[in-house]
Amino acid sequence: xxxxxxxxxxxxxxxxxxxxxxxxxxxxxxxxxxxxxxxxxxxxxxxxxxxxxxxxxxxxxxxxxxxxxxxxxxxxxxxxxxxxxxxxxxxxxxxxxxxxxxxxxxxxxxxxxxxxxxxxxxxxxxxxxxxxxxxxxxxxxxxxxxxxxxxxxxxxxxxxxxxxxxxxxxxxxxxxxxxxxxxxxxxxxxxxxxxxxxxxxxxxxxxxxxxxxxxxxxxxxxxxxxxxxxxxxxxxxxxxxxxxxxxxxxxxxxxxxxxxxxxxxxxxxxxxxxxxxxxxxxxxxxxxxxxxxxxxxxxxxxxxxxxxxxxxxxxxxxxxxxxxxxxxxxxxxxxxxxxxxxxxxxxxxxxxxxxxxxxxxxxxxxxxxxxxxxxxxxxxxxxxxxxxxxxxxxxxxxxxxxxxxxxxxxxxxxxxxxxxxxxxxxxxxxxxxxxxxxxxxxxxxxxxxxxxxxxxxxxxxxxxxxxxxxxxxxxxxxxxxxxxxxxxxxxxxxxxxxxxxxxxxxxxxxxxxxxxxxxxxxxxxxxxxxxxxxxxxxxxxxxxxxxxxxxxxxxxxxxxxxxxxxxxxxxxxxxxxxxxxxxxxxxxxxxxxxxxxxxxxxxxxxxxxxxxxxxxxxxxxxxxxxxxxxxxxxxxxxxxxxxxxxxxxxxxxxxxxxxxxxxxxxxxxxxxxxxxxxxxxxxxxxxx
Length: 688
Fold this sequence. Notes:
- The protein is of the alpha+beta class.
- About 30% of the residues lie in helices and about 20% in strands.
- The strands form 6 sheets. Strands 4, 5, 6, 10, 11 and 12 form a 6-stranded antiparallel beta sheet that branches. A 4-stranded antiparallel beta sheet has the order 8-1-3-9.
């Protein structure tokens, strides 16, 4: 309890405090007012202000004598400089460049010289997309030891080795050269005999030979030492050729983006070098599997099993994106598909606009480019030679870049995309050994790009049927500080590789069973026990990669699927082949619902169509529900159905590429335009 005196003071303060404050404020006001009244006012009249202003104006306008001004300047020690004469004299002076040379030449220091290097900060890819698919790819046949099987039936090496691409077919510039030289067709109105034409061609040939010779100097005979060195490098006898087979593959394609611009900035900052760029080694993949409703831990995707495919590709599919967004090591090459089509493996934002747009078909009657080119004498053979000959030239370029190496060195496999195979095949190991003993040598890549965003793509060929996965990726780069001494304390200079952070996981991706039923609707309505569901059964053959859809109806108690004859697409231009295929899913329909449902009493109309629903007993004893709404919109099923129809339709044409439903159609249209017409494909369904 408070002291009684304190309580009394508190009560007095609460009761009289405001009155005391007002009284004190009033007293201060009265005192200040009295002091103000006692102060004397300013004694200033208008006449005084006027006189002061006139005096100031007189001082401003008063003229000063020049001598007086000069005397004042001299007194202040300010002397004239005669600047005008100095300028005139300087114009007459001749400048000699040697007088202004530096004492020593300008030297560009080694990047980072005298600066301490750090470890670059790596980043994770983003916007990942995973898509499961199946098909048949052209690969080399391997024996039980993993070695390529020699094809003893081939006596001559193809002209497009190594690393040929399907879209590039040999022939050099012969087609075009033949047209321009001795291969042009005769005009119907020509009156010259064949002998006269041949003499003119020979005369033109000799004139061109002299023209070329006039531009050269020195002997055209190779130095004997050079010839001997060349002979030593060339293999004796024909090169071995390997058997090629079509192998059925299941794969999950994981595509994404990498902020290459940010990574380059991190490298420049860490390595103290304005030209520093990352040297990408590979892309690591990990996945989780959904088992009994629970995700397993992250497991590394078996790179050795994947490389059995990626290292043994006689041909690769075309890349839609330019090379400056396809870093070697981070983009797995696409095997050339003999069956099936690539889907969702190109990032649309990184593909040039001209490759995503589909040209309109040429006008009927040869008014388009195709008709124009076909109508001009000799241009038919020119276009044919160009289509076939440019491939040979480019194939030769690819062979030149590859250097004839099959697994050693930087094998290009016909293009930058396959450079990875040579790296994986042992060439990179030799290169790493080369710089390992070099002390402070920088690790640099031939691939450099100024693009901010680049593409990453990994392929998992080890996915199992009837499984669900989700993936994550990380980049692996060569350590730029390996074996260097000019690094900060604690910087890793021993490890060959640096590992980036893992990306966010992809969405769930499902690899369906090899034989999958999809509910697509019901047949005519009847008693509930007789409702038949119309199933589309998709069958994938692991032996050759053929994926075929077919329709079957089944009611409760019946097995879904049976042996049936269907058209099998081919890629050699021989047309579709009819073949009996076993579509038996080994699944039994337990119950069905759907079809036309009658409306309740009082409502007009014939009824409402209810989507099909079927309970299916699978071969492993589990029960699955097949719903029409989900199955009709299943992305993989729709791709299979669309691609099968296209492959059957195009079976009479030899396959030129397999870049997805959109790009294939586009290139088919381009070929038709150049040749005089042809159907156009769809939009760019092969991209995302």
